[in-house]
């Protein structure tokens, strides 16, 4: 959930947010690109490689808030095309070792980020915002960040990574592991890095990819998208 900073050049490229039911409230200095721009730039990762597994946690109650988040209306993972194509290269690299990817989150509508922040403040856990675990503005909103883990393809079993997804503690910091867990985390980091993804060191599952002129979106994730 690594926070981001936007340059003046990027802000000038953003279109004003479209008013629509359910949309996140506008955030001064963080202009949301229209849905038509999202549709032109985001692609379903499984359209690039259908063997990538998708288990979007925020579409269900199986996440740290205990409820589905707004904007997640389908179990589909979207990324900017450049990042999606890089992810397919990761999957191909891992397949040779009988491993594969399972995605927990990818592009995130801005309204969902707003809901996370509201949850933290409502439940007395605003410290998670300051500690770097929940971002008010996330690279997920840009379609360039992804949360995932490794699976062993012959059985479909998830590899042991030491903590569950979205564990807000030092135990989830990528380097805080030994033995098999450390090796599994390193396998994921190395495979992702080889395709251009950078790990967020406070979350072993979180990676981001650099694209030109990233812009935030609030386009809901739907089955018909």
How would you characterize the overall build of this protein?
With 225 residues, this protein is an alpha+beta fold. The chain has one domain: Muramoyl-pentapeptide Carboxypeptidase, domain 2 (2-Layer Sandwich). The chain contains 7 helices and 8 strands; from the N terminus they run ααβαββαβααββαββ. It has helices at residues 8-13, 35-41, 45-48, 81-95, 110-122, 127-130, 179-194; strands spanning 42-44, 53-54, 78-80, 99-105, 145-152, 157-158, 197-199, 206-209. The strands form 2 sheets. Strands 2, 4, 5, 6, 7 and 8 form a 6-stranded mixed sheet that branches. The protein has a two-stranded antiparallel ribbon with strand order 1-3. The relative contact order is 0.21.
Number of strands: 8
Hey, roughly how much beta strand do the residues contain?
A: 5-15%
Percent in helix: 25-40%
Poorly predicted ranges (pLDDT <50, ≥5 residues)? 2-21
N-to-C SSE series?
HHEHEEHEHHEEHEE
From the structure above, extract its key features.
about 220 residues, alpha+beta, Muramoyl-pentapeptide Carboxypeptidase, domain 2, six-stranded mixed beta sheet, two-stranded antiparallel sheet, 7 helices, 8 strands, globular
Write the layout of secondary structure elements.
Elements: H1 8-13, H2 35-41, E1 42-44, H3 45-48, E2 53-54, E3 78-80, H4 81-95, E4 99-105, H5 110-122, H6 127-130, E5 145-152, E6 157-158, H7 179-194, E7 197-199, E8 206-209
Parallel strand pairs: 2-4
Antiparallel strand pairs: 1-3, 4-5, 5-6, 5-8, 7-8
